[in-house]
Amino acid sequence: MEDLSHDSVNRFLLREQYEPKDLFEEIKPNINLTGGTLSGDDTVIDKPHSDPKITELIGYYYSGRHHRAVKGIQLITLYYTDLSGKSVPINYRIYNKQEGKTKNDYLREMIVEVLAWGLNPKTVTTDTWYSSQKNLKFLKDKGLGFLTGIAKNRSCSVDGKNFTQVQNLEIPEVGLMVYLKNFGQVKVFRKSFKNETYRYYIMYSPEKDALSSIDRAEFQELHSIHWGIECYHRAIKQVCGIDRFMVRTTEAIKTHFFSSIRAFTQLELMRSEELIENWYELQRNLSLQVARDFILEHLKEKLGLSTHSWSSVNA
After folding, report:
1. How far apart are CA 189 and CA 170, in angstroms?
2. Are strands 198-204 and 176-180 parallel, antiparallel or unpaired?
3. What is the chain's alpha carbon radius of gyration, rounded to the nearest angstrom?
4. pLDDT digits over 63-95, tens only?
5. Neighbours of 48 (CB within 10 A)
């Protein structure tokens, strides 16, 4: 690492051109492509000090973390959890206003791609933003089951005739079979949160008998799996440095994002092989080593103390 300079990193970012399929091809041998859960979500990579007039891809996007529009780059990811529990990003898009697409367009586009690449998931999970009628029919046409959040005013009917907002329904713990307006039969679940509000979710299976047999435990399991993509968002920011770039062009930023996401996949594979306990372990150990070396060097140079006998100290 001594020969690694800022300029060499910039040259790498400007020179290389990686695509999402490169990520998939690299991770494919390490995961079970059949029967897993495919989660879709987005996050904003904060860049509060960047100038949108100078740095490409920078814009203002609503952030769930800040509860307001913030300056940054929006990343949309497909995150796959296989039957053994390995969870990795397998496709992604960086939102680019110049392309004239919506987040929903990107989601459908990415799903089409991963299916063509050989992925055969059983279920797709998303949050409320991606629960449009067009998206749900798209998943149904692809023969995919799904779990997605829905707005409390979404129109449903128990008998297929008398429609009302989902928040008006009496929903038992085991869920309720309903007809979602302009879609068809789904099973709806309700989940309460600390502030005494409710969120509503629907599940769909291409097999009608399987839909009616879905229970609370299966809903909770899929809901927990979907939470994994939120943990991934935290890790790429806190551990993989996805927000730490000083380049301005689209291609260089895309290379940096690919490198950060690729770093995360390596951490997840190491975790799944029990080489590390969690994604944060390497960062913590590196920080401890850097702190240790700094302290010993400071003692040696500034205080004139011998640090030879300290060499085995675990900082």
Report:
1. 10
2. unpaired
3. 23
4. 888 888 999 999 999 999 999 999 999 999 999
5. 8
Alpha carbons within 13 angstroms on the beta-carbon side of residue 40 total 29
| Rounded CA separation 239/135 (Å) | 32
Bridge partner list, 126: 148
pLDDT in tens, 119-166: 999 999 999 999 999 999 999 999 999 999 999 999 999 998 999 999
197: three-class secondary structure by DSSP: coil
Distance between CA 152 and CA 155 in Å, rounded? Answer: 9
* 138 vs 313: CA distance, rounded Å: 59
Q: Could you give the dihedral angle defined by the CA atoms of residues 158, 215, 128 and 272, in that order, rounded to the nearest 10 degrees?
A: -170
- Digit-coded pLDDT (tens) for 201-217: 999 999 878 999 999 99
Name the CA dihedral angle for 191, 193, 199, 201, rounded to a multiple of 10 degrees.
Answer: -40
Looking at residue 3, the DSSP 8-state letter turns out to be: T
pLDDT of residue 310: 45
Residue 246: both structure tokens together: 């000083």
Return the residue matching tokens 């879905």.
Answer: 214
CB 198 within 8 A of CB 187: no
Residue 58 is which amino acid?
I
